[in-house]
Structures are given as C-alpha cells and as structure tokens.
Amino acid sequence: MSTPEHRYRALLESGDFATMLASDAPGQRLLTDAERSESLRCTLASRPAGPAWVFAYGSLVWNPTIRSVERRVAHIDGWHRAFCLTSPLGRGSPDRPGLVLALEEGGSCEGVALRLDEADVVAELELLWRREMVTGAYVPRWMDLLDSNGERVGAGLAFTIDPASANYAGDLPHDRIVERLATARGSLGSSADYLFQTRDGLRACGIPDAEIEQLAAEVEAALNR
Q1: Distant-in-sequence contacts of 119-126, Cβ < 8 A, 24+ apart
Q2: Residue 2 confidence class, pLDDT cut points 50, 70, 90
C-alpha cells in the first residue's frame, strides 16, 4: 500500500519536487542541480569517521523519507529548533509566506538520530539534498549526537539556518509567528499542519518540547476563532 511517505519519496526520486515548489513562488531562486551536488560533495568530504547519521528535529521526525537502519532519540548542544525560516513555497506562498523549522544557534535540541546503511549513504543523502537544499537557506553540518547520559552516539548531519539567507526570519515577534503558522498554505500543505505533525511526532518519540506545545495551542486557538 502506498503511504504519504512513500509518495513523498517517489516525488523526490522523480525529480519533480523542485519543479512543484518553483510553481508556488516563481520569483524564488532555487539551487540548481549542480549547486546541490557540489554542496553534498563538500559535506561528504568533511564527514567524520564512523557511521553516518542524520539528525531529525522537525519534519524528518514524522516523515523522514530517507531509509535508515537504526533510529534513536538523541540530542545536540549549541543549537535549538526554531521557526526561523520563511517558506514562500511548499508550506506558504509569496502573498502569505509560511514558516518552517531550522536549527538556530544557542541552547540544545532533542530529536531523532537516523543511522544510514553505509552502502546507501550517498544515494540517501542525494535524496535528502533534493528535499532540504531547495533554496540554500540551510547550512548542513556534522554534529556530535549525544544520548541521555551525554555519551556520544556518533556524528550526525543537521540542517542549520543560514542567517545571511533572504529567507531567514529569526527576528519575527511571537504574534507574527503564530499568525503565519495559522494562515499560510502551499503545495505541501499548511504551516499549521507542519507544526501539528511535528508536535505529534515529538510526542510519539517521548521528546518534550514546551515551546512547540505552546505554539501549537496558540495556533489551534487562532484557527478556531
């Protein structure tokens, strides 16, 4: 049976994902295939020794799309999840831009570590780059993943925000964040659903996030007015 995750993966494999997003916001510059390939090449060139992990903190928690051979809760230090990335495509439109999560400097973040099969690392990351490196607003970094005791699990790829990106929205007041999440919609769905699915995905993994819970409650209230 085809699931939403399987259909999402098929869309990425077909190469139609970027084309679909481009139709949301024709004026938004997207990375070319060559730019994405170069980004992945540079990232793999700096890969630390050991198994390759991906750190999921937002939609990758509930819709990872990539195939992994191990999944476990882990955290990183020095970064926190935040709705700091404007989305004029996918989860919003040029007229009503949405917001999605990125890792911003400071604090810590608990999420899900996905270990890739060594034989599939390049192929799975190529797929992940098609999904995440659309506009170039993320900076992929290898980070130490830690367990609940603070012991190192391994090196994981995490997508951090580029503060120099035109889509960086780290200075939005709280009420504007709530408004955007409650009103934006694009070809991938609404920003509100993105928030709710992230909340539910974190809950299912036993990962508490008071800020996400509070935002979800406020957005639900806004939608019910």
Answers
A1: 120/67, 121/44, 121/52, 122/44, 124/66, 124/67, 124/68, 125/40, 125/43, 125/44, 125/52, 125/66, 125/157, 126/40
A2: low
pTM: 0.95
Residues 164-194 pLDDT 10s: 999 999 999 999 999 999 999 999 999 999 9
Phi, psi values for residue 30, rounded to 5°:
-105, 150
Residue with tokens 């819970």: 213
Is residue 97 within 8 A of residue 158, CB to CB? The reply is no
In one-letter notation, the amino acid at residue 165 is S
Q: CB burial class (10 A; 0-12, 13-18, 19+) of residue 43? A: middle
Catalytic pick from 104, 110, 124, 132?
132
Query: Is 132 one of the catalytic residues?
Result: yes
Contacts of 66 by beta carbon, 8 Å cutoff, 6+ apart: 54, 60, 114, 116, 124, 125, 127, 128
